[in-house]
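COURSE: Structural Biology Practicum
ASSIGNMENT: Worksheet 4, Part C
STUDENT ID: 0417
INSTRUCTIONS: Below are two proteins. For each, the amino acid sequence is given first, followed by its structure token string. Answer the questions at the end about the second protein only.

PROTEIN I
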Amino acid sequence: MATNTKTHKAARYAVPVAVFGVAAATIAMVPAFANAGGPDLPKVTAQQLIEKIAASDVQQLSGSARISTDLGLPTLASGLLGGGGVAGGSADPQDKVAQLANGTHTFRVAADGPDRQKLTFLDGKDEYSLIHNGTDVWGYDSQSKEAWHEKHDAAAAEGKDGQGKDGRKTADRLGASPQQLAQDVLKAAGTTTDVSVGDTAQVAGRDAYQLVLKPKQSGSTVGSVQISVDAENGVPLRVQLLSSQGGKPIVDAGFTKVDFAKPAADVFAFTPPKGAKVTEGAAEADKGGKGDHGKEWKGLDAFPGLGALTGGAGDGDVKVLGEGWATVAQISVPGGKGLKDAEAAANGKDAPKEAKQFIDSLGEKVNGTFGSGRVLSTRLVNALITDDGKVYVGAVTKDALVKTANAAK
């Protein structure tokens, strides 16, 4: 089931996939031994387990899953991502899937190959469903009784081969499946990761091995990534992203129940209920935006580099510093506009109160060879916004971020 939770809003606090880099050629050949609480499985090496994941051809499944995300976001940022359930409001899937970046959510899943998937969010008594069936993609919110629809050929208007501006098709945004998260983690290559096989486990009633990835570099906010892999068919059943500071996982996504039988065809059938308001995705794209996305406060243009935290890098030049888990993106703002300009814009007479709240939520003041600025901190990603118009963003600690900024001057 090809899915992905990294939508426009979620990406503003997401760490680049590159920091999860792991090279199969450097994998430690550590055998797995069953612990007292796990199933007794044959020993495998990490290399063999990666090969098992790569060889898995499972395309049909159904069941239930849960994702919990604790990024430690500032209050305002948490609100922007949606702290409550996903039902209610717009039926646009970009808005709904973004809310998976905060809090705990449960959902039912079903997949039958690359052209049929369904994901139903079960937060509260109301439901929100995303259905991909052939050339049709539907979103339906039972609370607001709103439906969203897009044809694959209509989606092509957003980009080549039906892809959106972020390079993904709308149909590929149907949630945050453990399979997709695991693929993202294993996609990039590098020599900065220790990879081993941990204790065995049971996930959703299935025997599983655990693939463990740990940064070799110091300064990362990531302690480890643990991927539970179905011992029989190689499907990733659970992904946990653990903080280097301890505590509960930053991200914990996994199946609670799973069946690999072919789902019934009618699972993917959808017709909007009588009286439901239907929004066509292509029509919204023709208007130059998607729902409320076009209503973002234009005052942020006073500091384009802030776009790194609010939906992209804007027009700034981006330079990648470091590698692997220590990767930091340096964004230089055109015209040298910096934090002081953003503060002035936020205090302007036409600025919404949320703009000033956002500026106030930026963390403590820091100084160094780079100059001065503020650090916005989460459990995963830290961002240094300087007074002279640069933004440094990475899944590294505050001290490591300041050190990188100092070295870049």
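PROTEIN II
(use this one for the questions)
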Amino acid sequence: MSATTGPYAALVAEHGLATSHRLVLDAVPADARVLDVGCATGYLAAELARRGCTVVGVEYDPVAAQQARAACREVVVGDLEDARTRAEVERAVAGAGGVDTIICADVLEHLRDPWTVLSWLRTVLDPGGRAVISVPNIAHWTARRALLRGRFDYADFGLFDRTHLRFFTRASAAELARRAGFAVREEHPAGAPLPLESRVPALARVRDRCVRRCPGLLALQVVLVLTVAQPRP
């Protein structure tokens, strides 16, 4: 069995966790009971376990799921858009004593109906719990540049990943959360290295300030921390 499976696990193995991964991890309380949706090979679950968290994973790829079991209490293999997989997740969550944190890191854009899946995930979250989601920002300057050139070239990973079925901006990511019954409590933009940054390290500090000031243009990923919305009276 390969040490990694899929392009994103390979990227993590080669380069380490991305900025968006770190932001997701920072939003998870220590000792949390976590449902890691799309846990891949368990690279986030392993970090969470080191922080005292108990993790239940869900993964479509059975090879990746087998590797993730080393870091997870249990891994459910299947498609969350299938009712049978959802039933298995509900069973696993109940066996873990519930979950107070759900993470969907670079997952929702791969689903046919992320609105319905996120709405269902809200129903398995403990009262007072949180969800942490990250999605690519299709309004990032590199995507805008490509479109201005008349290009939309699919790739193995990144903004134009050929397995992406949905595309989000900051505004539509927040709308996805609201339609699923969540309230957005925090938004964290995650940047990406600028051209020439490897040669001019000072650009990294400039980049981080610019991303915070203009996230719609410069955030490669949008990380949202969500809580269940209170019903209106």
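ANSWER KEY EXCERPT:
Q1: The first helix runs from residue 7 to 15.
Q2: The chain has one domain: 7-228.
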